[in-house]
């Protein structure tokens, strides 16, 4: 299949994902797609699909270039601010070279920093995560579409919403996606090769600006753990107040001052 097939898909298809994309373009809004594998397998074509989706959505003259793809959040955050409007950006196999839980922390950090503070840059983000269970549940509320790869070249697609009353995400089936390998000799294949070389370099232990050092990864994990613990504590505090305890009583139980409890309850 031609590398132009993704362009035609987003331009002409009646698939719900293509229709969502065209509506976002009309509204000058971002679109964020999360790709995971149902079995946490490698070699199922997540990278290929991430690049094809990005290629189909990118509306710039240069298209998807090596500067728009990354293996960790740091260069992606820079590209988010520097690349022109209408660009597609890809965070690819972030588990390469670090263990899966550290990789999950990196993806969570990318979503949190790019998505929650963005929405004004008119960029299209494709985040290729190690596995669904490594992405924080609360961060999934910031993602528009979830592509769940079931086998090589085939995925189910879901639109993500959030139920504020029941406190969990809602997934609406948007159908399926199928894809072929990226044709050799195309510009997009050159980007694919660029990513492959970066992954191989990381596996050899080489590090640079495009890599997450293990010390940095550990910092990410520790920060993510602190944020998770703080989030659970804050949720408990709100529940205690909602169930009739005063802020002063709650503060005594959890070991905080009343002013801190008040800020948490009213945040």
TrEMBL record:
InterPro entries for the chain: Cro/C1-type_HTH, Lambda_DNA-bd_dom_sf
Coiled coil: none
GO molecular function per UniProt: DNA binding
Location of the HTH cro/C1-type domain: 236-266
Protein name, per record: HTH cro/C1-type domain-containing protein
Species name: Halosimplex carlsbadense 2-9-1
């Amino acid at each position: 299949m031609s590398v132009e097939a993704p362009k035609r898909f987003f331009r002409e298809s009646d698939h719900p994902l293509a229709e969502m994309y065209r509506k976002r373009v009309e509204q000058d809004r971002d679109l964020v797609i999360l790709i995971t594998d149902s079995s946490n397998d490698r070699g199922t074509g997540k990278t290929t699909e991430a690049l094809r989706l990005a290629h189909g959505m990118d509306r710039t003259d240069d298209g998807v270039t090596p500067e728009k793809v990354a293996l960790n959040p740091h260069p992606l955050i820079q590209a988010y601010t520097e690349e022109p409007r209408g660009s597609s950006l890809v965070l690819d196999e972030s588990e390469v070279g670090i263990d899966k839980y550290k990789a999950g922390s990196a993806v969570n950090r990318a979503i949190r920093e790019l998505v929650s503070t963005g929405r004004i840059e008119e960029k299209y983000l494709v985040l290729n995560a190690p596995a669904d269970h490594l992405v924080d549940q609360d961060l999934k509320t910031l993602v528009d579409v979830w592509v769940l790869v079931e086998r090589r070249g085939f995925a189910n697609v879901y639109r993500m919403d959030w139920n504020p009353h029941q406190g969990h995400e809602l997934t609406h089936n948007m159908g399926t996606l199928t894809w072929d390998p990226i044709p050799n000799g195309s510009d997009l294949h050159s980007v694919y090769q660029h990513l492959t070389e970066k992954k191989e370099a990381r596996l050899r232990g080489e590090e640079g600006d495009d890599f997450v050092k293990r010390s940095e990864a550990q910092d990410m994990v520790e920060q993510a753990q602190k944020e998770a613990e703080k989030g659970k504590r804050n949720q408990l505090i709100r529940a205690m107040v909602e169930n009739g305890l005063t802020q002063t009583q709650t503060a005594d139980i959890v070991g905080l001052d009343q002013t801190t409890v008040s800020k948490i309850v009213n945040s």
